[in-house]
């Protein structure tokens, strides 16, 4: 009875500030789970490959100006356009490791001053993650890590506001990992959390929708 062959995959989301180590940890986790023989893919939002994603990418590169609510809804649309594929993958047994999701959507827009409930509304009905791992790194510490790039939002004062909003979104389903620890230690905790979530899904945990 191969536990890897049956039932659905797990939706594992990593969240955190810029330079929190999310992206490299997603890559490490992908390699680890693939090595164990699981069907697994790494996704990220924004998905810049779609036409909506290209509009988002131009905005982030300061090549276009968009009203705060307009860009918020584009980020959300970028998740909606992937929802059906996401559901198919999960139901066919593939685990998805996702670098940023609706929580980035709310935290970044709320940090600009938009109403939190308004920010959450377009996310309702997207697939709820099985586990959200928050890589917790203080903004000052993240900023020291080789500095920010040139994209919008990559400034210390703004990242501080984003961090506050992430903390307001935290609930009991989140796993907070101290991202200031060694890379190896963070990696070990992520592997344990991912394995636990995958096994829970294999045992029949139902898929649910946001916002729950
Ligand atoms: P990356 O640097 O991870 O590509 O993110 N963002 C992201 C939002 O404002 N709303 C969202 O819904 C998402 C997914 C976070 C690009 C930037 O876009 C922000 C950083």
Topology:
Elements: E1 11-16, H1 22-35, E2 40-44, H2 51-60, H3 68-91, E3 95-99, H4 102-111, H5 116-120, E4 131-136, H6 139-144, H7 156-169, E5 174-178, H8 183-202
Helix pairs in contact: 1-8, 2-3, 3-4, 4-7
The chain binds 3'-deoxythymidine-5'-monophosphate.
Describe the fold and architecture.
- Keywords: ATP-binding, Kinase, Nucleotide biosynthesis, Nucleotide-binding, Transferase.
- One of its GO terms (molecular function) is ATP binding.
- Pathway: Pyrimidine metabolism; dTTP biosynthesis.
- The protein has one domain: P-loop containing nucleotide triphosphate hydrolases (Rossmann fold).
- It is 49% helix and 13% strand.
- It contains eight helices and five strands.
- It has helices at 22-35, 51-60, 68-91, 102-111, 116-120, 139-144, 156-169, 183-202, and strands spanning 11-16, 40-44, 95-99, 131-136, 174-178.
- Helix 1 (22-35) packs across helix 8 (183-202), helix 2 packs across helix 3 and helix 3 packs antiparallel against helix 4.
- It is globular and about 45 Å long.
- The chain starts with 10 loop residues before the first strand and ends in a 10-residue tail after the last helix.
Provide the number of structural domains. Answer: 1
Total helical elements: 8
Structural class: alpha/beta
Bound molecules: 3'-deoxythymidine-5'-monophosphate
Low-confidence stretches: 1-5
């Amino acid at each position: 009875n191969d536990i890897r062959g049956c039932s659905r995959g797990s939706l594992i989301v990593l969240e955190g500030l810029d330079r929190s180590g999310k992206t490299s940890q997603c890559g490490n986790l992908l390699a680890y789970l693939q090595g164990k023989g699981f069907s697994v893919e790494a996704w990220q939002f924004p998905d810049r490959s779609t036409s909506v994603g290209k509009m988002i990418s131009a905005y982030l590169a300061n090549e276009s100006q968009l009203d705060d609510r307009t860009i918020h809804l584009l980020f959300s649309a970028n998740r909606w356009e992937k929802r059906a594929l996401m559901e198919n993958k999960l139901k066919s047994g593939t685990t998805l490791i996702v670098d940023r999701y609706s929580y980035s959507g709310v935290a970044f827009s709320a940090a600009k001053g938009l109403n939190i409930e308004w920010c959450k509304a377009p996310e309702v009905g997207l697939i709820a993650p099985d586990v959200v791992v928050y890589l917790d790194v203080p903004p000052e510490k993240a900023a020291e890590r080789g500095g920010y790039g040139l994209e919008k939002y990559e400034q210390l004062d703004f990242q501080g506001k984003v961090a506050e909003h992430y903390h307001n979104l935290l609930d009991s389903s989140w796993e907070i990992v101290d991202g200031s620890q060694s890379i190896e230690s963070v990696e070990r905790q992520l592997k344990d959390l991912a394995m636990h979530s995958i096994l829970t899904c294999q045992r029949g945990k139902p898929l649910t929708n946001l916002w729950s």
